[in-house]
Design a protein that fits this description.
This protein is α/β, with parallel strands linked by helices. It contains ten helices and 13 strands. 48% of the residues are buried. The chain binds uridine-5'-diphosphate-4-deoxy-4-fluoro-alpha-D-galactose (UFG). It is an enzyme of class 5 (isomerase).
Length: 328
C-alpha cells in the first residue's frame, strides 16, 4: 500500500514505519523533527520535513495514497497540564487539517495513535472500550476530542478509521527505541540511571491508592503495538470508526518496574520518593480483548522482563554511541 505516516520519526511512529517498510509497503513519512530522530527513520522511506498542518494537503494531493497512520502529536501528560494551548493546537487543529486533506484527496483509510489517557481515572480495571472517558489532563482531552472528530467524519464522509488507545508503550525494536532529547518516561529514565547518566530515579509519590503506594501502569511492547497498526490499516471499512485498547493486561507499579530494571541491568538503581506529578492517575490497566477478538491481534512480548531487556539493549547501544562520539 502507498501510505503516509505522520510523525514517523518519533518512537512509536518509526518502529511502525520500519515494520511497514519490511512488509513491502511504500511509506512516506512527514515529521518536523521537533522530537523525532533522523536516525530512526527507515532508509527505504521517503521523508518530508515539515508540519502536518502545512503539508498534508500537498502531499496527499499527489494522489495514490491508500492510507494514513497519524502519530504526529504532543504526547506528554505533565507538559499538557502546563501548556494546554500547544496540545489543542498541535493535536486537535492539526488533525482537523489532516482529515480535511484526506477528504479532499479521497483517502479514506486512517489509523490514529490515541491513548489510555482518554479514560482518565477509571472506576475499575481492566479498562474496556465502553467505559466512561473522563480525561484527567489536557493531553487525554485532546486525543478524545479527535476521536469525536474522526467518528463524525466517518459518518458524514465515509472515512474508515481505527483509533488505537495505547497504554504505556516501552521496549525497543532493533536499533529503534526511546531516544528523546528531554526524557520523561519511567523505563528510559530508570535505565539511564543504570547506565550512569543519572544519579537516581525520582518516584512521583508513594501515597497513591495502590498496593505499594506507587502508580500502576500496563506496559506494552512497541513491536507488538506496531502489529496492531498494520491489522487496523488492513481491516478499516469506509463509514466505520473503531476504537481499541492496547496493553498487555498486567499492571506494574513504579517500584516493580524499578525492581525489574535492577534485575535486568544488575545495577542497584538508587530511588527516591518525590512529590506527585500533576495529571497522573493512580492505576491504568487495559483490556485488549476486543482487538484480539475482532482483528486477531496476538501480542508476543507481553512480559515486563522482555520489554525491559529490549529497552536495556537499546539504551546500552545509545550509551556506546554517545561515548564514541565524545572520544572522536
Ligand atoms: N514516573 C516516576 N518517575 C519518573 C517518571 C515517571 O515516578 O521519573 C511515574 C509516573 O508518575 C507514572 C509512571 O511512572 O506514574 C509512568 O509514567 P510515564 O511518564 O512513563 O508514563 P505516563 O503513564 O505518564 O504516560 C504514558 C504516555 C502517555 C499515555 C499513558 C497511558 O506518556 O502518552 O502512558 O497509560 F497516555
Amino acid at each position: 500500500m502507498k501510505l503516509l505516516v505522520t510523525g514517523g520519526a518519533g518512537y512509536v511512529g518509526s518502529v511502525c514505519a520500519a515494520v511497514l517498510v519490511e512488509q513491502g509497503h511504500d511509506v512516506t513519512i512527514i515529521d518536523n523533527f521537533s522530537t523525532g530522530n533522523r536516525d530512526a527513520v527507515p532508509g527505504e522511506a521517503r521523508i518530508i520535513e515539515g508540519d502536518v498542518a502545512d503539508k498534508a494537503a500537498e502531499i496527499l494531493g499527489e494522489g495514490g495514497f491508500e492510507g494514513v497512520i497519524h502519530f504526529a502529536a504532543r504526547s506528554l501528560v505533565g507538559e499538557s497540564v502546563d501548556k494546554p494551548d500547544e496540545y489543542w493546537q498541535h493535536n486537535v487543529v492539526t488533525t482537523l487539517k489532516l482529515l480535511n486533506a484526506m477528504r479532499e484527496s479521497g483517502v479514506k483509510n486512517l489509523v490514529f495513535s490515541s491513548t489510555a489517557a482518554t479514560y482518565g481515572e477509571p472506576d475499575q480495571v481492566p479498562i474496556t472500550e465502553d467505559m466512561p472517558t473522563q480525561p484527567t489532563n489536557p493531553y487525554g482531552a485532546t486525543k478524545l476530542a479527535i476521536d469525536y472528530m474522526i467518528t463524525s467524519f466517518a459518518h458524514a464522509y465515509g472515512l474508515g478509521a481505527t483509533s488505537l488507545r495505547y497504554f504505556n508503550v516501552a521496549g525497543a525494536y532493533g536499533n529503534i527505541g526511546e531516544n528523546r532529547e528531554v526524557e520523561t518516561h519511567l523505563i528510559p529514565i530508570v535505565l539511564q540511571v543504570a547506565l550512569g547518566h543519572r544519579d537516581k530515579i525520582f518516584m512521583f509519590g508513594d501515597d497513591w491508592d495502590t498496593e505499594d503506594g506507587t502508580p500502576v501502569r500496563d506496559y506494552i511492547h512497541v513491536r507488538d503495538l506496531a502489529d496492531a497498526h498494520v491489522l487496523a490499516l488492513k481491516s478499516n471499512e469506509s463509514g466505520n470508526h473503531r476504537i481499541y485498547n492496547l496493553g498487555s493486561g498486567d499492571g506494574y507499579s513504579v517500584k516493580q518496574v524499578i525492581d525489574m530494571c535492577r534485575k535486568v541491568t544488575g545495577h542497584d538503581i538508587p530511588a527516591e520518593v518525590a512529590p506527585r506529578r500533576a495529571g497522573d492517575p493512580a492505576t491504568l490497566i487495559a483490556s485488549s480483548e476486543k482487538i484480539k477478538r475482532e482483528l486477531g491481534w496476538n501480542p508476543t512480548r507481553t512480559d515486563l522482563e522482555t520489554i525491559v531487556s529490549d529497552a536495556w539493549n537499546f539504551t546500552r547501544q545509545l550509551g556506546d554511541k554517545a561515548h564514541s562520539a565524545k572520544r572522536s
